[in-house]
Amino acid sequence: MNSELTNICDDFIAAQEKTKGIFGLDYSTVYIICAYIMASRKAEINEDELKANRKLLRSQNGAFSSMRGVMEGPVTCLMTVSGNPQEFLDNTQENYAILKKYFHSSEFAVSAAALITEYGDSGRSAEIAERAKIIYDRMKKKHFFLTSSEDIVYCVLLAMSERSDDELIDEMENIFKQFKGFSDGDTVQTISHILTLAEGEVTEKCSSFNALAQELKDSGKKYGKNRELTVLAALSALGNDIQTTVKDISEADDYLAEQKGYRGILGFSKKERLMHAAMLVAAAYAPQSNTKTAKISDRLAAIAAKELILYRCIQDATACAAAVAATC
């Protein structure tokens, strides 16, 4: 395994240990997204700084705010790596307030607000939010039962595109039809978002994704057949050699298998571990610069990985809340 990927794996494992103690108490898996943020940005973890930034976030947001709960840890980590926690928080809260004029309050809307802040587009947040809602409504019209709050982040990314709404919608629908039945409808819709955002011709992008999924299967690795596929879609869109990508995923998976948290029956499952390996390969491949709209596909794999973890965290939180309610 190359040194870049080894370092990211090591940073991810170390970050898990530290962030789990801070953010893993209320929601069992939220520390994974926190660890991923810190490791993918190659950030040194200062626990006192993280706690101070969490306190800052809490001082400006009530306990029932969507800025808290599942998103408290990820936003705190993004504040920390930004270099200016107060400014990042202020901009994200302002972007979130604007998004709430067009979308319901949700963790995904908070994630989208933070994404706008990350890309330095807070000055365009009203324009982006308005266009994102138009794209969202058009998607909803075509796929009423599939389109929901989890699509907000990708709608915001699409709204940053210089391409027309018609061109974006037509390409997404084309890709959706090509992969219909490949996985569940929600996953296929997200794949269509990701491949539309990526640069290149539609047939070529779809072929690359198919080839990567097949190559990984042929390697003997049993990758998940649902949401995990979104990370593979983004990885395929980065244009790296497919065999090299599969080799890196396999080596990262084997490396994680020997680490704390992945060994034994109490660790992550093999499919979860392989998903984490793919995420870390995405982090290794994606540039770490503050790219903006014109180069947004450069970090698409990192965005897809973060949103996948967020989706899993929200699932866990929902299941936990339901279990608690059942005992009352």
Give the SSE map.
Elements: H1 3-23, H2 30-40, H3 47-59, H4 72-82, H5 85-99, H6 107-118, H7 125-142, H8 152-159, H9 165-179, H10 185-197, H11 202-218, H12 229-237, H13 242-256, H14 270-285, H15 300-327
Helix pairs in contact: 1-2, 1-13, 1-14, 2-4, 2-15, 3-4, 4-5, 5-6, 6-8, 7-8, 8-10, 9-10, 10-12, 11-12, 11-13, 12-14, 12-15, 13-14, 14-15
Shape: globular
| Portion of residues within helices | 55-70%
The rounded distance between the terminal residues' Cα atoms is: 50 Å
What is the average per-residue confidence, as pLDDT, rounded to a whole number? 90
Find the count of extended strands (DSSP E, 2+ residues): 0
* Rg, Cα atoms, Å: 19 Å
Q: What about the largest sheet?
A: none
Q: How much of the sequence is in beta strands?
A: under 5%
> Which stretches are low in confidence, meaning pLDDT under 50 for 5 or more residues running?
288-294
Can you characterise this structure?
- This protein is mainly alpha-helical.
- The protein has a domain at 163-298.
- Helices cover 68% and strands 0% of the residues.
- The protein contains 15 helices and no strands.
- Helix 9 crosses helix 10.
- The longest helix has 28 residues, at 300-327.
- The radius of gyration is 19 Å and the shape is globular.
- The N and C termini lie far apart (50 Å).
Descriptive key words:
328 residues; mainly alpha; globular
What does this entry show, briefly?
Residues 288-294 have low confidence and may be disordered.
